[in-house]
Structures are given as C-alpha cells and as structure tokens.
Amino acid sequence: MPESFNNTIAIAMSGGVDSSTVAAMLKAEGHELVGLTLQLWNQKRLAGKEGLPVEVQGRCCSIDDVYDARRVAEKLEIPYYLVNEERRFEQDVVRPFVSEYLAGRTPIPCSLCNNHLKFDQLLTTARQIGADRIATGHYARNEYDPARGRWILKRPADASKDQTYFLFGLTQEQLSRTMFPLGGYTKPEVRDVAREHGLALAAKPDSQEICFIPGGDYKKFIDAYLHEQGEQMPETSGELVTANGEVLGRHGGVHNFTVGQRKGLGVSSPSPLYVLQIDSASHQVTVGGEAELGTSTLRARGLNWISIADLEAPMRVKVKIRHRHEPSWAVIEKIGEDDVLATFDEPVRAVTPGQAAVFYDEDEVVGGGWIAAL
User: Fold this and answer.
1) CATH code at 307?
2) What percent of the chain has pLDDT above 70?
3) Are 261 and 334 contained in the same domain?
4) Which stretches does the entry tag as region Interaction with tRNA (predicted)?
5) 280 marked as binding residue
6) Please, what is the average pLDDT of the chain?
7) Are 97 and 23 within one domain?
8) Do residues 187 and 194 make contact, with C-beta atoms less than 8 angstroms apart?
C-alpha cells in the first residue's frame, strides 16, 4: 500500500522551464515546497583545456541555470538551497564515463546521474529537510498498482519528450516518493503553463548536450580530464579490421569509436564503412557495411525490474536500445542471475555495449539493464 506523506515536497530545480513550471504548479495547488538544485560540476574546470571551448555559459547545470532556479524560487517565495554534490558526481558519473569509453563502450551519464544522484542523494537530502517526496520536471508518469503491489513507471503523454529510457534504474522506494507532474503535458503546453504563472524563462531553450562536456566533444574532454588528473592516456591503439579479419589499417585508441559510427574511421573505402564491434581486450575495431550493423540478439546485465518483481519466464516486450530508438519487438529471457538475452523479431541496427536496453509492455516500463558484449 502507498504510504501517507506530509505536505512538504522538495522540487528538483535545474533552472530550466520544466522544473520551474512544476514548482509553480505545485505551489498553486497549496503544497509546501522547498527548492533544491544539485551543484554537480564546475563548468569552468576544464574550459579551454585540450581544445575544449572557453565559453561555458548557457549550458545545463551552469551558473546561469543556478541563477534562474534561485530567481524562480524567489518569485514563488519558497525556500531554496544549492546542494554541492560535485565529489559524488565525479565519482559516480564522470569517472565511470571516462573508464567506459577507454574500455571501448559507450556510456549514458544521464542514467548514472539519475540512479546515483537525482533519485538517490536528492531523496536523502529532501528527507533531511522534512520533505517526504520530490518532484521533478521529467516527462514520465508513475502510479501505484494495487493488484501487483508495485509502483509502475509509464511513458508520458508527449512521446517526443519521453524520458523513461533514462529512468529504468529507479527502485520501488524511489518511485513511491517521486512525483512527475508533467507526465500528462506536451512541451508546448508546459511553456503555456509557465507563461500563465509569469515565469520569465517560459521560452528558455532546452539543453541538448551532456552537462559536463563543453561543446559536446567527449574525446577532448577525456584528454583534458586525464591530463588534469595527472594520468596518462592508456595505450588502446590497435587494428581496424573487416568482419572476415582483413586488416585495413590502424587506429589511435578505442575511445575514438562507438558502434554505428561512420565518420572519422581513418580508412578509405569505395562504399561507406561503419563500426561494427569494439574488442576491449585486443583493441581491435571491426568495420563493415551498413547491412552488417544489424543484429538479432543482445545481452543485458545490471538489471532493474519495475512492473514485475523478476523475470520468471520468457516475456514478449518492446526493447529500446538508445534514447532516440523506436522500440523493437523481442522476447527476453533470463540466462543468468543478472543476465537477460533479448531475441528480436527483426535485426536491429547498431546494438552498442554500454548503452541501456529498456523493456516496455505497451506504455509501461518492465525494467532494463546495461547492454554487454555477447
């Protein structure tokens, strides 16, 4: 059964239009609110290093965003706190991000941030200041299903803004204490609500980049971060080969590649070549034609189940393998205590180790895990 909560809600305020609108909506409904912004990364820390841009303003989690969040809190007359979590963000998000790329995988820092900070540390902080729940500007829905005795995560009304892919790691405890007030709104409707409440940032653009990487160039970021840490770039150069083993040339490091990549391969070919596979042990990068990108199976580990307690029998679901991927039909089955094999009806393009595989039943998130090499 759902718990009874007090009337105090902590708002995760990013300084964007979505979380600001959530704060205005809940304030109008009569809730007691406390605004919290997580300070996760010093945007000036690596600016201008190793070719990274010097200009860092106007980005997600920037000082501009903190200012905007504080200004909204002042307008709504709610308490506001800036919570410094830079150390934990570096430990749980930035370091794994760098390590994954150096191992030839393609990580999702937003999912790690959600799992370790936005729905973990933020809830802990909220309860310390007397709030039983948090509310965020994510586009998702959650509800309690008494028949299953579980909290269910669902896709939002605005399919183009669906963020459930990044939320597959939420626990039942976290879902029970989280509110997604924008789940039934489209983005244009949210901007209209923001204007109705007199929020000056109603037209503020959305951020599209990884928050801690100026300019979005992760390769330069990795170089700059390792240099700052006094660490040498590990030697991960190796051969570029075809699927049948023909050596086409050499590359400068596996962190320069991701599955499905076409540009920057460093070899010429009469027809386009794509990265098919990255071998972290041999540092071999396999390339081939677009038709070779398709695969009929994937393996996922580090599982988290939401609509079910566990996968006890093969289940037919739709599987999403990247944020912008249209989910594909597949059957998932356990092949180990923490391993699932997904077998697709039709081959899917560019299954990428390090990304998430999220399983859907209609609009419900069944669960998900991290794609591993077969």
Assistant:
1) 2.40.30.10
2) 96
3) no
4) 161-163
5) no
6) 92
7) yes
8) no
Q: Is 134 helix (H, G, I), strand (E, B) or coil?
A: strand
Residue 330 has which token pair?
């597949």
Known catalytic residue: 113? yes
- 284 and 310, same domain (yes or no): no
**56: annotated binding-site residue?**
no
Cα-based torsion angle of the residue sequence 314, 317, 321, 325 in order, rounded to the nearest 10 degrees: 160
Residue 313 and residue 282 in one domain: no
Structural domain contains residue 95: yes
Query: Could you tell me if residue 161 is inside a domain?
Result: no
Q: Is 315 annotated as a binding residue?
A: no
Number of domains, the chain: 3
Whole-number percent of the chain with pLDDT over 90: 79
The reply to whether 86 and 208 lie within a common domain is yes
In a domain, 92, yes or no: yes
Q: What is the pLDDT of residue 373?
A: 83
CB within 8 Å of 256: residues ≥ 6 apart: 219, 264
Is residue 15 annotated as involved in ligand binding? yes
What is residue 58's predicted lDDT score, i.e. its pLDDT? 46
Q: First-to-last CA distance in the chain?
A: 40
Chain segment 125-151, per-residue pLDDT in tens: 999 999 999 999 999 999 999 999 999
Out of 60, 61, 110, 211, the active site residue is 211
Q: What is the pLDDT of residues 11-38, one digit of tens each?
A: 999 999 999 999 999 999 999 999 999 9
Q: What is the dihedral of CA 284, 288, 292, 293, to 10 degrees?
A: 70
7 contacts: CB under 8 Å, gap ≥ 6: 30, 31, 32
Is 102 buried (19+), middle (13-18) or exposed (0-12) by CB count in 10 A? middle
pLDDT of 316 > 60? The answer is yes
Choosing from 60, 61, 110, 113, which is the catalytic residue? Answer: 113
Do 133 and 272 fall into the same domain? no
Shared domain check, 107 and 56: yes
Domain residue limits at 253: 235-288
